[in-house]
Amino acid sequence: MQALFKSGRYFFAIAIIAFGTIQYITGDFMSGFLHVKETFPSRVFFLYFISTLFVFSGLAMLFDKTILGGARIVFFLFVVLFFYPHLFTLISDIKNGGEWTVLGETLAMISGSLILIGLFINNSPQQDPVLRFLKNKISTGRCLFAASLIIFAVLHFIYADYIATLISAWIPWKLFWAYFVGVAFLLSALSILLCIKTPLACSLLGFMFLFWVFFLHLPRVAGSPHKESEWTSLFVAFAFSGIFFIIAGLPPKKVKV
Fold it and tell me: What is the CA radius of gyration of the chain?
């Protein structure tokens, strides 16, 4: 499981680096994942500031000596983005499935970084004055990730017909798989919350997301290499695979509240 944890940590870090790189290359915020209005004050400054934070923190998470600082930056950055623009936008359009998707994705990124903070702060002599109010960061991160999975499960049930259209043409029974994945999300969330077969459930979901990266997202990127949203979706899936592997590889003593 230690190898699985290391892979997850690196997957997550690489995805964070990719988010910043995508924004540098396109000269704009990620359209679906980080939609910031054109009228936002100092938009260009914040574009490159946030992109730099993504790249810097992702690189930091690749190394043991700097992973704690990198994970903290990712945590606070996504917490800010969770409230604005994502929650702010969702409140104004509460029935928008796309906004719920982005909110769930952001919540997952918060959870992944918080789990890493909880794991590595325990191995560090440093005090953690900023996040001291969270007594068990790993448990909180797991619960937040489970909450994001519940959001995705509900979306899969509500928008199954639309999700089926996103599945590659060569895969049969598209509607079945749309519902199947929704059930898988729900069962994985329960597994994480109840600490029942969590390593197995998260390993399976981690490999499922990795499968999507290679057999769903990469072909779409290859078909539209200049489309930013396809690159972003690929690395969001890669990040999810990493978070699942991180949770699957957690030492048993770190799992309980």
Answer: 18
Length of the chain equals 257
Identify which of 6, 30, 26, 25 has the alpha carbon closest to the alpha carbon of residue 236: 30
pLDDT tens-digit readout, 113-148: 999 999 988 655 555 555 555 668 899 999 999 999
Cα 107 versus chain centre, distance = 7
Contacts of 38 (CB under 8 A, 6+ apart): none
CA distances 254 to 119, 170, 248, Å, are 8, 41, 11
* Tokens 């794991």 -> residue: 119
The reply to whether the predicted model has a pTM over 0.90 is: yes
Tell me the torsion sign for CA atoms 109, 114, 119, 121: positive
pLDDT of residue 3: 85
Q: Which domain holds residue 152?
A: 2-255
| DSSP H/E element including 83 | none
Hey, what amino acid is at 240?
F
| Structure tokens given for 103 | 């909110």
Residue with tokens 């048993």: 252
Give the total number of structural domains in the chain.
1
Please give the structure tokens belonging to residue 117: 């903070």
Residue written as token pair 């509500």: 158
Burial of 94 by CB count in 10 Å (0-12 exposed, 13-18 middle, 19+ buried)?
exposed
Distances (CA, A) of 112 to 20, 168, 246: 17, 28, 8
- Of 115, 59, 114, the residue nearest 249 (C-alpha): 115
SS3 sequence, 180-216?
HHHHHHHHHHHHHHHCCCHHHHHHHHHHHHHHHHHHH
